Structures are given as C-alpha cells and as structure tokens.
Amino acid sequence: MVRTQLQRARNGDVTDAMERVAERENRDPEFVREQVADGQAVIPNNTAHDALDPMVIGREFATKVNANIGNSEETSDRDGELEKLHAAVHYGADTVMDLSTGPNLDAIREANVAHSPVPVGTVPLYEAVARVDDPADITHELLLDVIEKQARQGVDYMTIHAGVLMEHLPLTDDRKTGIVSRGGSILAQWMEENAMQNPLYATFEDICEIFAKHDVTFSLGDGLRPGCLADASDDAQFAELDTLGELTRTARDHGVQVMVEGPGHVPMNEIADNVERQQDVCDGAPFYVLGPLVTDIAPGYDHITSAIGAAEAGRAGAAMLCYVTPKEHLGLPEREDVRDGLAAYRIAAHAADVANDRPGARDWDDALSEARYEFDWRRQFSLALDPDRAREYHDQTLPGDNYKDARFCSMCGVDFCSMRIDQDARDADGDMTRLDDDTDLDASAAADVNRPPVGSHDAAGVPDEVEIGGVTFTPAESSTDESAD
C-alpha cells in the first residue's frame, strides 16, 4: 500500500517531493519534513500525477496562489480548458482547480492532469450531480465511486464539503445571501429532501481510506462561507469551522494531509481574526482562502476587492489564496480573465510575503526598483510580474527602440522626470552620492515564487507540445521566453 507524504514524514523519511519542495523554497529538507509531519504544511502529490512538479502549502512557506478553471453547461470545451490551464501556469498559478460542471468532465480532467506541472484539485460532488437527474438522487455509493475514480485519474486534492451538517442549516436563515457555495447549497438541498445527514460527513472515514491509498490531500470545503459582508463571521460559518476542525483530526489519524478552505466576503477588520480562529480550531492546518472580498460594491472589479483581502489574509497567516477574476459573480472566466486574476493574486501573495519578512522576498522589489532608477527599461520589463503587459503599456506612447535607452517615460517627459533630475544632481559635484544598486537575485534566499519569472515550474513531465485550437503550445515556455526582445 502506498504511504502518504504525511505518513512518511511522521516516519522520519525525507521524500523526493520534500527534497524538491526544499529546493524551491530555499529551506532545509528536514524543516519541510517536520512541517508536513505536524500537519502545518501539505504537499499535494497524487502518486498518479506524473507531470507534477511538487510544491508546498503552509504558513511558514511562501504564500501560494490557486487558479480556478473549468467549463460550464454554457461554454468551454477541452481545448478551451487546456488554454486556460496553460495561461494559469504561465502567469504563476501554484495549483489549479478544475471546477468543470459541463460536458466531457472525464476528458477535461484527464487532459488537465496530464498537462499540468502544478497540483490539480477538483470538487467531486459536481460530477456526482452530473450523473443523476436530480441531486436528491445522489447516493453514498455514487459519491465514493466518483471520488475513487478521480483519485485514480491523478487528482492531487479534492474539496470535500463534509462540514455542512443538518443542524447548521437553520443558522443560515437570517442571512442576506443564504448559502453561496455550490457544494454547500447542493448538500443543503440533499439533506432537506432526504432528511438525512450530509453524505460526505457520513462517509468521511471511507473517503479517508481512498485518499490514503492514492495520497490525495483534503481541501475541506467551507460550504457555509459568507457571500456578503453582512453574513461574515456568523454562527453558521463558525459552526461549520468547528466541524472542520474535528474532520481535520480524523483525516490526520488516517495519515491523510489536510488543508481547510476559508471565507469569501469578510470586512477587512475581521480578516485577521478569521485566520487566527481557523488556525486554532484546525490545529494549524494550512488555510486556503477565497479572497476574501472586502466590499460588495464592485462587480467587474472583484479581482481587486478580493486581492485587498487576500493580502491581509496572507499577512495574517493564510497559506494559499484562491484567485478571483474580474468575471466573479458575472460569468465564466476566459484566458484574459485568468491572466488578470493571477496578476492581482500574485501581487497579494508577494505583498504578504514581504510583510511577513519571508527570506529574500523583497529582493525582487529591490532589483526592479534599481532597474527603474537606472532607466534600464529592458531589465525592468524582464523583472516585471507580467513582462508583456509592462512593455505593452510603455510602448503605447514610446514604441521606438531608441526609447528603451531613454531617461524618461511619457508620464513626466524629459523635463519633469524626478529620477533623471535626482541622478543629475547626484552626478554633479556636491554632497549627494550615487545610490546602491547591487541586489543579486541569483544569490537571493527567496523562494521560487518570490523571484522572476512567474510560472517557472519544472515541466519535464508534461508532454512536449499540446495543440489547442490549432495553436501549438510548449508548456515549458516561461514568461521571459515569450517577452524576450
């Protein structure tokens, strides 16, 4: 029987995955093992995911970002989903979740696992719903069958909404937006119509056995998360959280890794308390948060409203941030939405790591600032989070190659560029001296995610090429490859 990363860590073994994680995080392998053994970190690493480049999720490591992709009944197919996967990995997703609810679920899931160098997550309840005419017809056996199959296919972690109990449902009656989680609402309907306890809760130990067999990580879903500021930090949310703490301990008893999902809409002043409460209730299990959104007023800009909350959650100790795109609440994200969502969340994650004084995290900021001050435009572009976007905006007004050596941009022009004026003053005779510009990113102690380029996953296990919509992609391409002069 396959032993999980958690079981091996407890046994004192430093696995290949732990060695790779230590390399990517610039940490000691033994420290990685200790964190996994204590349940403070997880390495989602299904034994059947051959293309995976292992990564770690834990509050003592660099803050990670997940990108949700997936089709719906209305839009997208296998090629469209692979294009979104490629965009997600390219723009720096540390994991992806396939939330497909439309046709061809197996084909899309298998393609994502085969072509993803990052961990792939799913919500198996969605497939169970797709197999029946009425969600009330879902059986315990069907749920276990779907979970077992997805585990065999190589899914690294699964959202299991096992913490939504019958006794919690009346607690949602005074909410403004009720139950906003897909999984939570489906299970609430199932319990109401069948007058039975949550089937995922009832079969939880059976699920643990499946997960232990394939080394699948639990992502314990927050089915009663708040869907607006008014519902944040209420009795329903915290009742479910208490159940998730119990389930965390049960899963660990079975040798299965666990992370816990967190709320979606929370006022900024309540975010740190939410993170600290989860860490206490769930014995330090990594917290994986959606946003949270700090205001409800900005449809079309919720990648911004949520990235603000995500940065605060990361600063308070959340281990992974689930991105939100501009399409949130409005429609299914497409490739450009994935790009914008990931940019917002990579910024939030990096800002949290800088605030938490992660080793070397600020070196990237310092190196880019030095390039900016020296008017080294090409280096500034290459160091940017999104090099193509930075170059595009610069070249909209000053497109010529000669402007790549200019000591100004179109914002201030020649006469009013403060950095040019400052440089000239320092070069003249006087008391002002030249500034330091010696940040060496190659020697930085920062984790991979805190050094450019983003999307620098090892794609050695991914097929060399994949054709999507008549266009051939090479998954190993990095952002610097695509933005080279």
From TrEMBL:
[4Fe-4S] cluster binds at C409, C412, C417. One of its GO terms (biological process) is thiamine diphosphate biosynthetic process. Substrate binds at N68, M97, Y126, H161, S181, R182, G183, D222, G223, L224, R225, E261, Y288. Its cofactor is [4Fe-4S] cluster. Keywords: 4Fe-4S, Iron, Iron-sulfur, Lyase, Metal-binding, S-adenosyl-L-methionine, Thiamine biosynthesis, Zinc. Binds 1 [4Fe-4S] cluster per subunit. The cluster is coordinated with 3 cysteines and an exchangeable S-adenosyl-L-methionine. Pfam families: ThiC_Rad_SAM. It is an enzyme of class 4 (lyase). Zn(2+) binds at H265, H329. Residues 444-467 are annotated as: Disordered. Catalyzes the synthesis of the hydroxymethylpyrimidine phosphate (HMP-P) moiety of thiamine from aminoimidazole ribotide (AIR) in a radical S-adenosyl-L-methionine (SAM)-dependent reaction. NCBIfam families: PRK09284.1, PRK13352.1, thiC. This is Phosphomethylpyrimidine synthase.
